[in-house]
Amino acid sequence: MSPSSAPPASAPSIERSLALSASGGTLSAEAAEALLHARGAELDALLAEAGRLRDLGLERAGRPGVITYSRKVFIPLTHLCQDRCHYCVFVQSPGKLERAGIAPFLSADDVLEIARQGAALGCKEALFTLGDRPENRWAAARDWLDEHGYESTIDYMRAMSQLVLEETGLLPHLNPGVMTYAELESLKAVAPSMGMMLETTATRLWADRGEAHFGSPDKDPAVRLRVLDDAGLLKIPFTTGVLFGIGENTAERVDAMFAIRASAELHGHVQETIVQNFRAKDSTAMMSTGDLATDEYAAAVAVTRLVLGPDARLQAPPNLTDAAELALLIRAGIDDWGGVSPLTPDHVNPERPWPQIDELARLTAAGGYTLRERLTAHPHYIREGAPWIDDAVLPAVRALADSRGLAREEGLPVAPPATATRSRSARALPFPAPHAAVRSVVSLALERAERSPGTLSDGDYAALLRASGAELDALTGLADDLRRARFGNTLSFVVNRNLDSSLVRSGADRTSPTLGLDDFADLADEARMLGATEICMQGAAHPELGPSGYVDLVRAVKARQPALHLHAFRPAELADGAARAGLALPDFLTALAEAGVDSVPGTGARILDDTVRETMTGGRDLRVAAWLGIVEAAHRAGLASTATMIYGHIETAPQIVAHLRTLIALQERTGGFSEFIPMPFVPAEHPSMPPHLAGRGPNLRRSRAVHAVSRLMLDEHIPHLQSAWTKLGPAGARAVLGGGADDLGGILLDGSLRPDAGAESGRQLTLDEVAGFARDLGRSAWQRSTLYDPIGPDAG
């Protein structure tokens, strides 16, 4: 039900609701919804009550009759975003930016230039505006971040915030959308305040096709409410707000107000609530949607005041309402106009210019109030200081504040001493800004790695994953020195064939697109004839093969070719087979080994972090504990396995390091890993992934760094490091083989009987091509078994 179609509340219910508020009572959601329909004389009465509560709150705050604003400069760090809000003109595509000659992100020099111009005009706040996690959707964003040595957009924003604070004295206010608890915690050291609009709690506007937020991962109300509460737990002065007119009904409007009130009452951190009215914009999906009517908007502002109470700070953007109607918003109970810039436009609403500050002061005075400048954090947080404002930024904040916590009327921002912010922020995040600090952090980590690569801290390894340019060359050179010390100038490979066991059916015949058990055996014969020493068999056995399906697949191959090494069944398939057979996992593994399985693929590891796995597959992945338990059980049963990792999607550098640490711990318990295979994320190979991951995948810089750090961390634990050449491509494979990897993996014979019968069919190497790889690297190639024993002439 849309707001306009909601039945009007009866006059008595509006009167009763106003009387309840005037007597100090607490409004119910039903009463608040009734008040949203006030018009005419009832609206006047509603505005009067809202104004009364606002005035009471200002008296309590010690500034009666004062409406505030913040003089700020807007820094649009990037116009890219993973969301697809149907009313937004701020967000652009990489192609459109490229055609306009605009880089995916503002450079550090561009950021500083905007900040310095703002400081010269008396601005005291630098509002960072940007899209939500564009690297999750756009390869151009991921590539830019990788090339410049940043883990994420939020990581880059943190670095630029620190830079602006140290170089200009402007106070950063950070508005990057959804943030994790850890990100909020690290950002607190470089910004006195942050914000994220709740907008709405109407889940249907996010979940239903055609609604305003459909296709926007970060607009899930549950996710945004979690951010709001996390900011409260961390005691961050936080700006939030509602956006009315995007398709929500009146009950949903009230629900959003109450959600903000609940979080504010619990944590005390909501420093201001913005009530924003929808304004249709050309060239958007909602361009034909009508603007929120002025009286409807005024009623919504007033009801928000009544719901939040007198002590809440209530903001309305002054440029989204005609100047002649600003007095109506003052009557509705606002006490803040938010940020107004003398330099930069409202990048989110570029068609609505800011009022001149002198004109805003005149209009405010016409409404009976005095306009005063505040800072990005509201006065009572500034007066209290810790724990609300971090020690790293508190001196810069207080340098701009008067005794009441408002902005000093005289003077301009002055950059504080850099040492205070840099030392504190460096503790908060192991790798701060590459503009000055990150490069030194990487360099220091490299120096420690040269002395003793196995003793670096996890923070050091995470920093090294961000290396680029000459530092990346130094890192990969160090990794390759370790490889050479262990294996000399050699390149190993295995001659193998992939078979997809999910293709086998019990009733298949020669004309069927599927395969029978005899067909599988024929393919094993062909592989052996072509020189293979290994069959890699993966894929869930079809249910019609029955409880013994997995064992029967093994026996079909081994009955024909007992000398072939059978590398078979991923952890999820092992769990499935045990369940089908009605056996405990150790007993099922014993049965597989007795039937002829020689080792198992350690795939399905992805990133060993349950949050990442849930996001990537919606719960279809095994939990981390289950994956580890299955692999450990295989090792205990005498079945060695590979260890794998898929990188280049949504994982962070610390999560990569944690993944490697987890593998090391398991290796120390069992010794069962034969090799480690980092696999770059290839979206086309993961069709069930969320749509916003379609543009993901690592660039060559990231692949080189991941392989080099893997060599440094694993060299004493899992010595063999394989290049996943089918995913990296020839150039990528050569690059990582020159930076720590010692093994090319399998050459993946296709054969001629059923060349499509295996995963990655159509991608195979000849022995001459393997020799070419080795020559390019200045090495000699040697053929190995699955478990790295020499084969052929090298065996002796």
Q: Main β-sheet: number of strands, strand sense, barrel status?
A: 9 strands, parallel
Overall structural class, as computed from helix and strand content, comes to alpha/beta
How large, in whole angstroms, is the Cα Rg? 31 Å
State the shape. elongated
Instruction: Tally the helices.
Output: 30
Distance between the termini: 80 Å
Low-confidence stretches: 1-9, 418-439
Structure description:
- This protein is α/β, with parallel strands linked by helices and 796 residues long.
- Helix 21 (517-529) links the parallel strand 11 (496-500) and strand 12.
- The longest helix is centred in the N-terminal third of the chain and has 20 residues, at 41-60.
- It is elongated and about 95 Å long.
Short account of what is shown:
The protein is of the alpha/beta class and 796 residues long. 43% of the residues lie in helices and 12% in strands. Strands 1, 2, 3, 4, 5, 6, 7, 8 and 9 form a nine-stranded parallel β-sheet that branches. Strands 17-10-18 form a three-stranded parallel β-sheet. A three-stranded parallel β-sheet has the order 11-12-13, covered by helices on one side.
